[in-house]
Write a structure and sequence with these properties.
The protein has 93 residues and is mostly helical. The radius of gyration is 20 Å and the shape is globular. The protein has a domain of 57 residues: Ribosomal protein S18 (30s Ribosomal Protein S18). Bound molecules: zinc ion (ZN). Zinc ion (ZN) binds next to helix 2 and helix 5.
Amino acid sequence: MADNKKNKRNNRNNNDSDYNPRFRKMRKKVCPLCADKNLVLDYKNAEQIRKFVNDKGKILPRRATGACAKHQRDITLAVKRARQIAVLPYTAE
Ligand SMILES: [Zn+2]
């Protein structure tokens, strides 16, 4: 009885024997630009581009944006263009 309880606790929501808590099951991120075909990146649209940079003005990595390789390249280009025309800052302070 007591044994059974303990076992249940250790095996919560997973039956894999090689369970490693460092690699928890994560929801697969879907590329925001692939998900919405009508969404077109515009480097003049500061509101849109700002989503892809952190508060320091750095471009977020793919693991944060969830973008696919193709769209991450587009994002990078858009951010760099936006910086060039002073829509976005190169750096904060
Ligand atoms: Zn994509």
